[in-house]
Amino acid sequence: MSVALVAVVVELWGAVASNLVVVAAASIALAVLVLVAWVVPWDRLPAWSEALVPLGYFVVVALLRHARGGASAGYPPLVMLPIIWMALYGTRAQLHIAIAALAVTLLAPLVLVGAPFYPSDAWGLSLLTVAIGALAGPMIQRLVEQARQRTADIVALGAITRALTAGADPRPELCAAAAAVAGAGFAVLFEPDDDGVLVATAGTVGLDLDELRVDPQTETAATAQVWRTGRRLYLADARTDPRASHRLADLTGAVAVLVQPVTRDGRRTAVLLVCFPQARARLPEAALDMVELVAAEIAAAIDRADLVALLAAQAHTDALTGAANRRSWDEALDRELARAVRTGDPLTVALLDMDHFKAYNDSFGHNAGDALLRDLVQALRTELRTGDVIARWGGEEFALALPVCDMAQAQLIAARLLRLIPMGQTASIGLTQAGPGDTPRSLVERADRALYAAKNGGRNQTGALAAPLVA
Known about the structure:
By secondary structure, the protein is an alpha+beta fold. Helix content is about 55%, strand content about 15%. The protein has 15 helices and eleven strands. It has helices at about 1-15, 20-40, 50-70, 80-90, 90-110, 125-165, 170-180, 220-230, 245-250, 285-315, 325-345, 355-365, 365-385, 405-420, 440-455; strands at about 185-190, 200-205, 215, 235, 255-265, 265-275, 345-355, 390-395, 395-405, 425-435, 460-465. The strands form two sheets. The protein has a six-stranded antiparallel beta sheet with strand order 3-2-1-6-5-4, sandwiched between helices. It has a five-stranded mixed beta sheet with strand order 8-9-7-10-11. Helix 6 runs antiparallel to helix 7, helix 6 runs parallel beside helix 10 and helix 7 (about 170-180) packs antiparallel against helix 10. The radius of gyration is 39 Å and the shape is elongated. It starts with a helix and ends in a 6-residue tail after the last strand.
């Protein structure tokens, strides 16, 4: 635009009566273009509208060319500027429109006006200029696209590195990386839940993941197909492709969709969707390769997340029975006792010990004893509430914390627990309720004395000790 402004000023400076009207028209056209470029909200208009200003520039150049003397004027090279601008910043369609406008600007006067301003010997130079624009424009655009793709790849690799070194869940960062390398609008990661249904577990910012679910057992959409087959699919236009999920399109606005399987050592672990807001005939091979790289990193990240979760569970869980271990019990009892003191709600602690467990082991073997303890924990959990805690205290002894449960309620629960002991065996239970000044240690010691009272009373029963009165 600044080049056109300089040209108009030069022409106005040296204008004569014969071309003053044409120069004035060029000045008005340029002023209109500057005003339009300044005030129009281009971000609210369709993408094709951005070509209006460069196309208007052709009109200004054509008027200046005519004012200067037609084909002999030195302005025709200026018409290459919109071609270069469109190649750098426009779409392929906009570039083609600009090349067509270039041809009209240079060739139409030769046909419509003719000599003396536009003699027949000007055809060669005009056609050469059009040919240069037609060749240089797409070449520049390809180079720009390659540079942008390399930049996106570098950004994505940086995102992958950040995701894999961060302590938080790397999935959202990896989804963002997949969208970046493909030049997509967004990406969504689907993983199977316990029922085998694919649910969205991560995505780029702004997506409502709660609504995105795919059942590969009953649905035929592309996501389900890729999960079943492990082969990548690309939908150039989801609006017309029967394999597309209309629900996904309605929720996200996706038009073109790349559905990439996420596998690890031949195992399917997830499905990655890379989505575009407009139809695209194909994706460059480089983009497909980078998305595949991101998918491989996602698979590794899922494996690492699963391993971390497993290690965390093992750090707080008894390996044999699946109950909480002593470390986890200590943390839970500290927490529940502090809550009881803060709220005034009752807290009851129980110790359960299998009766004659050594004799059971001697008779049936240690494997049978281990199985009995596992079955015992599973049976007890059917009777306990979600907030109750069961931990393996040691050997065949288990500790229970019953929040918001007083001694009377706990005795009813204990009676039901004694009826759940597997394999026809019995157990004894000691109960105590937290009182003023109690500590985790004093609670467990009192429950232990209650347990031994139940043992000494004949086993297969509940013993209870109240908290001592505080003077």
